[in-house]
Amino acid sequence: MKKILLATTAVMAVAALGLTGCSSDNGRGGEATTEEGSGFAADSLIGVALPDKTSENWVLAGGLFEDGLADAGFEGDVQYAGASNAVADQQQQISTMITNGAKVIIIGAKDGAQLGTQVQEARDNGAIVIAYDRLIQNTDAVDYYVAFDNFKVGQLQGQALLDGLAASFPDKTTYNIELFSGSSDDANAPVFFEGAMDVLQPKIDDGTLVVVSGQTDIAQTATDGWKPENAQRRMDTLMQGTYQSTTVDGVLSPNDTLARAIITSVSDAGQAEAPIVTGQDSEAASIPLIMSGAQYSTIYKDTRALVATAIEMAQALQAGDEPDTTTETNNGNVDVPTLYLDPVIVTKDNAAEAYAENPDLLALVNE
Ligand code: BGC
Fold first, then answer.
1. Which residues belong to the signal peptide in this entry (predicted)?
2. Model-level pTM?
């Protein structure tokens, strides 16, 4: 009976692969970690190593992983890196998961460039590594990557900034803007920024957008640790210097936590007209600001969907199947088989529609 079930699963997996057009070459030179039909025990340990809680999506992910892994019949071990020693914490947590015999380790990296030793250790011990939301860089030992399409997030942010400026300042033909990016230890930060600049750079080049501070380099725009106080400090400095005698019309903010800090800074500086500020994550604290117009846009990346997708990958691996992937992402060493989910741009015009399936967020829209 068991054999028949396993065989059926394998057939279904092959059918699914055929449908999604995936190849069975998983980017590791065709050398699959698990052979079709040879997964691991259904109640195996699955480790989840999350970074420090720099934004609400990470806070939500922990509980969702705990519930989702339990529902799937796995033994889950969900750990967060502490805020003060996050890199070392996370390295230690992953090593412990390996020692405890985890079959899959799902990692939201604190510093994607500092996990090479741990993921190699995982591979050497037969554990499969799934990079969650943030890519792990410069190592061969990452098996899969699941995230919302980060470049697209940036493009949507750039386009929202342009749209918001045009709608809010119909009489202007040029706009003063500033650019913010995320933490330099997060592999997503440059991708968000490049996506945004893909849209904004032509408008900077033709003079429509003026970055009055001249700070367009990612090193100048970065926000260490994704910390709001760092964004607020930089914006305060800009307001006290660059914007003494002129106004800032728009600010590219890479996420909602930083958007709120930037909005506070501009308002504290006494600028009467609110700038167009972008964001990301659809944080509960930003939805009222979106509805009032204080923050122009956010991005909806449904954490429930991302966690569910990562767990589905673990389930496929458990059954001995190759998880569905749609593309590959180069991490500096290898092309990592990747499944990207679609981010959604949200402004007050489409918020009700965008959050229609999310009662918690929808309630904030209707408040
Ligand atoms: C995530 C964003 C989040 C940021 C800060 C990024 O890696 O993709 O959604 O805003 O980290 O936590």
1. 1-15
2. 0.90
